[in-house]
Write a structure and sequence with these properties.
The chain is an alpha+beta fold. The protein is built from 18 helices and 13 strands. It has 3 domains: 177 residues, Formiminotransferase, N-terminal subdomain (Formiminotransferase-cyclodeaminase, Chain B, domain 1); 157 residues, 2-Layer Sandwich (Alpha-Beta Plaits), CATH 3.30.70; 201 residues, Formiminotetrahydrofolate cyclodeaminase monomer, up-and-down helical bundle (Four Helix Bundle (Hemerythrin (Met), subunit A), Up-down Bundle). 52% of the residues lie in helices and 14% in strands. Strands 1, 2, 3, 4, 5, 6 and 7 form a 7-stranded mixed sheet that branches. A hairpin with a 4-residue loop joins strand 11 and strand 12. Helix 2 packs parallel to helix 3.
């Protein structure tokens, strides 16, 4: 899975559009980064920018944005309603997919070190990136704001994690707070009431902070305090969640507005279920939910799988179908249409890119293959045949999960279908990857070859591109081979009426493996240095031998099932 992180820097300028545009341009100028949102605030004199990408491009974009903010913003002239300590005030890194919060910590600390070393911007590290427990709290790092920074830098207990003495550079740019934190989901739960007080009661029931303790457990009794005179609190049921109740004129209903600060501890669907329970206990009903801003795809996929499992239905269905279940189960379209393509970070990142081949229709793919171009060729077709084999094995698993009389076996077949979906996705990605590998060879062949140095560079590039082009169909072989055990399991245990489909799955996967093997061999033949090719060719022989054996077992089982 591709590693994707989100960065949400806050810059201390919300009024000068030229300054804001220049900072955003510095960020978006980094290849591999996509700016999703720019939100300036005049009263706060602060702009929040949201961008995403893989770690290296995001770190570079964060650095360039801070450098441009340092150049254009003078903190000695800055005033606004929001707390701040520098031109780039906060710079959090947030894991979205394929990367953990723990893995973001060294990235954040490395970014903070670079800001100090190369730009002279002192940095505090907060949240998960904090070096000390007290600095996990951003408010502690930013205490006293910009105006207290000179004094803090001379105090060993309060000086930045990265920084030195106060100087002209620091006076102008201030300090930056660099952090790593979990993704925050902002969501409003719609209630079938207009009562703010009742919505607030539900919020108190579920939010981690809870409500003030009162005599007799009533809502109006005398406040209870401990022996030291401190207010006692009754905690709510959802850890890491903040919530209030309010009335929304636009919709004419009350809502519980919530921030989920740790989606691993409290996934969205868990919060939905708990708010629904708390509302029902007070005679209310949650009619739906409204996601504010963007979410990682896994938030909705996890929810869809949760509700499918509650229904004892297979989760090995397409991503689009799982998302549809999530939307309908939590009524995310209660107040207005909900389009995952507009709310999911990964989809927004991929917008406009599109996979050239697998986005074609079946007819279009065939026509493209039949054209005069050398690509797509046998490698892409092999990968697609493998994807169809995995798809058929998955289909048999899903049909078996829903077979009348087999209700108690739904999880067994769901697990197979889920594996099949993963194999199919892997092979679909290789359809375009194989063509990209061919194009890499063509790019290398087009390099200049006039001087001896140019010839050497060209020869090295051709060799590297050819070796890569041999490795891609080997990955296709390995992926397609994963479909064979699934086909065998479905031939043995699956719905007997679909035995032929399990057999075709095996044949398609086998054809994919043999076709990809030809592509590995022909590319290895094009290498000047045959030594790197040998491990690849050894793998080819081993996979082919295992394929023959497994394919034979599957077809024998299919023949038994058909028995004609």
């Amino acid at each position: 899975m591709k590693q994707i992180i989100e960065c949400v820097p806050n810059y201390s300028e919300g009024r000068d559009s030229q300054v804001i545009d220049a900072i955003v341009a510095a960020i978006s100028g980094v290849e591999g980064v996509k700016v999703l949102d720019v939100d300036p605030g005049e009263a706060t004199n602060r702009t929040v920018v949201t961008f995403v990408g893989e770690p290296d491009p995001v770190l570079e974009a964060a650095f360039r944005g801070a450098r441009k903010a340092q150049e254009l913003i003078d903190m000695r002239q800055h005033h606004g309603a929001h707390p701040r300590s520098g031109a780039t005030d906060v710079l959090p890194l947030i894991p979205v997919s394929g990367i953990t919060l723990e893995e973001c910590v060294p990235l954040a600390r490395g970014l903070a070190g670079r800001l100090w070393k190369e730009l002279g911007i002192p940095c505090y590290c907060y949240e998960a990136a904090a070096f000390t427990p007290e600095r996990k709290n951003l408010a502690v790092c930013r205490q006293g704001e910009y105006e207290a920074l000179e004094e803090k830098m001379s105090d060993p207990a309060r000086k930045p994690d990265f920084g030195g003495a106060w100087n002209e550079t620091v006076a102008r740019a201030g300090a930056t707070n660099v952090g790593a934190r979990n993704f925050l989901v902002a969501v409003n739960f719609n209630l079938n009431t207009t009562s703010t007080r009742r919505a607030m009661a539900v919020a108190f029931d579920v939010r981690e902070k809870g409500r003030k303790a009162r005599e007799g457990g009533s809502l109006t009794g005398k406040l209870l305090k401990d022996a030291d005179g401190n207010q006692l609190w009754i905690p709510g049921t959802l850890k890491g969640c903040k919530a209030i109740g309010w009335y929304i004129d636009e919709y004419g209903i009350a809502q519980v507005s919530m921030n989920i600060t740790d989606i691993d501890a409290v996934p969205l669907h868990v919060a939905f279920e708990e708010v629904s329970r708390a509302a029902a206990s007070r005679g209310l009903r949650v009619t739906g939910a409204e996601i504010v801003g963007l979410v990682p795809k896994r938030v909705l996929l996890d929810a869809g799988r949760f509700y499918l499992e509650k229904q004892q239905r297979s989760v090995g269905i397409s991503e689009e179908e799982i998302l549809k279940i999530a939307v309908k189960s939590m009524s995310l379209d209660d107040l207005k249409p909900f389009n995952p393509r507009e709310k999911v970070i990964e989809y927004l990142m991929d917008e406009g890119k599109g996979e050239r081949l697998i986005s074609l229709t079946a007819k279009g793919f065939a026509a493209e293959t039949a054209s005069e171009s050398a690509a797509p060729g046998g490698g892409s077709v092999s990968a697609y045949m493998g994807a169809l084999g995995a798809a058929l094995a998955t289909m048999v698993a899903n049909l078996s999960a829903h077979k009348r009389g087999w209700d108690d076996r739904w999880k067994e077949f769901s697990d197979v279908a889920e594996k099949g979906q993963a194999v199919m996705a892997e092979l679909l990605a290789l359809v375009d990857e194989d063509t990209a590998a061919f194009n890499r060879i063509m790019d290398a062949l087009s390099l200049p070859k006039g001087t001896a140095e140019e010839k050497a560079v060209r020869a090295e590039a051709i060799e590297a591109a050819t070796l890569y082009a041999a490795s891609v169909p080997l990955r296709t072989m390995e992926a397609a081979f994963k479909a064979l055990p699934l086909a065998l399991e479905m031939a043995v245990k699956g719905n007997p009426a679909s035995a032929s489909d399990a057999g075709v799955a095996a044949l398609a996967a086998g054809a994919a493996i043999r076709g990809a093997a030809l592509n590995v061999r022909i590319n290895c033949a094009g290498l000047s240095d045959k030594a790197p090719a040998q491990p690849l060719l050894d793998c080819v022989r081993e996979i082919l031998a295992q394929t023959e054996e497994l394919e034979k077992s599957i077809l024998e089982q299919v023949d038994k099932n058909i028995d004609v």
